[in-house]
Amino acid sequence: MDTVLPYRKIIHIDMDAFYASVEQLDFPHLKGKPLAVGGSEVRGVISAASYEARKFGVRSAMSGVLAKKLCPDLVFVKPRFERYTELSRKIRKIFHEYTDLVEPLSLDEAYLDVTQNKKGNPSASLLAQEIRKRILEETGLTASAGISINKFVAKVASDYNKPNGQKTVNPDEVVAFLEALDIRKFYGIGKVTAERMYQFGIYTGKDLKEKSLEFLEEHFGKSGKHYFYIVRGIHNSPVKPYRISKSVGAERTFEENLSSEVFMEERLVSIAKELDKRLNKYKLAGKTVTLKIKYSDFTLQTRSKTLPYFVADKSILLETAKELLYQEKLKDSVRLLGISLSNLNSETQKTVAVQLKFEF
């Protein structure tokens, strides 16, 4: 007797250019304009870019200086994270009307396991369509969706018909879908890894699939096993509604590089205050304080200290950060400082995901 493989029904919802779209929603004069959230034309890094800006090659994590060169008409706006968080909560509330198995990845994206759902609808594709429609009606923002048998394929699929579209990859289509996919479209394979794969003649999922497990482990280490399985559509990670933060932090990029520890101490006060606010919000405490230092040449350094007890108080965070600041001489002037707290008191919670087979 043949065994029928169980399939989960996973939706990956990804808001379209979320931060930039919120700015264009709230300030109609920005609609249709190339927009960058965060950074500036003289320094700083961009948090998000509108689709109008992306046409010029502007991307998140790009320096504002380079973005301005690519798009001379680029408009910079300061991020408003409280507003983004407010809308993100509204969107997540919609998700929870369909399933309790919601795993947020960030403010603008999440996985939903709708194998069994509160609407009793067997079609994950129709549910995704309905959720996207609700988001548009209730927030004025568009979202894209990917629907498939696991988180990896759903994540890749959500990028397929962006913006404001969706893509379903049915169980019998998964292998062919992945084989035809450009290796750069595989979630988790960045530019450096893609270039290494090119050296071995790996340009598509089909090329990747032809490589043995031994070959991939030899050339890509622990990630090799991951690549071996995902290209075959095997990714068993369940949707985890309780994602436990490993660390909480706050940081600041300065308008001008700082070369004096005295000025840096002043900045650490506001950073510690912001971190304290975030810790209180989520009722978290931790033992390991880390000071992040980014120098003017963009090199990064971290200094950490583990305390014998859990802390969340801003005065202790600040004093520990100061101690780390003076731990050794700074190598150069500093453009960014950050404080983070890890080794948290949050407890791991396990979630059991039911697996059934339904029509997509």
Descriptors:
360 residues; four-stranded antiparallel sheet; five-stranded mixed sheet; single chain
Q: How would you explain this protein's 3D organization?
A:
- With 360 residues, this protein is an alpha+beta fold.
- It is built from 13 helices and 12 strands.
- The chain has helices at 18-26, 51-54, 64-70, 81-96, 124-139, 151-158, 174-180, 191-199, 205-209, 213-220, 222-230, 261-282, 314-325; strands at residues 10-15, 35-37, 48-49, 75-77, 102-106, 109-113, 143-148, 166-168, 247-258, 286-295, 300-311, 334-344.
- The strands form 3 sheets. A 5-stranded mixed beta sheet has the order 5-6-1-7-8. Strands 9-12-10-11 form a 4-stranded antiparallel beta sheet. It has a 3-stranded mixed beta sheet with strand order 3-2-4.
- Helix 4 packs antiparallel against helix 5 (124-139), helix 10 packs across helix 11 and helix 12 (261-282) packs antiparallel against helix 13 (314-325).
- The longest helix has 22 residues, at 261-282.
- It is globular and about 60 Å long.
Provide the fold topology.
Layout: E1 10-15, H1 18-26, E2 35-37, E3 48-49, H2 51-54, H3 64-70, E4 75-77, H4 81-96, E5 102-106, E6 109-113, H5 124-139, E7 143-148, H6 151-158, E8 166-168, H7 174-180, H8 191-199, H9 205-209, H10 213-220, H11 222-230, E9 247-258, H12 261-282, E10 286-295, E11 300-311, H13 314-325, E12 334-344
Parallel strand pairs: 2-4, 7-8
Antiparallel strand pairs: 1-6, 1-7, 2-3, 5-6, 9-12, 10-11, 10-12
Helix pairs in contact: 4-5, 10-11, 12-13
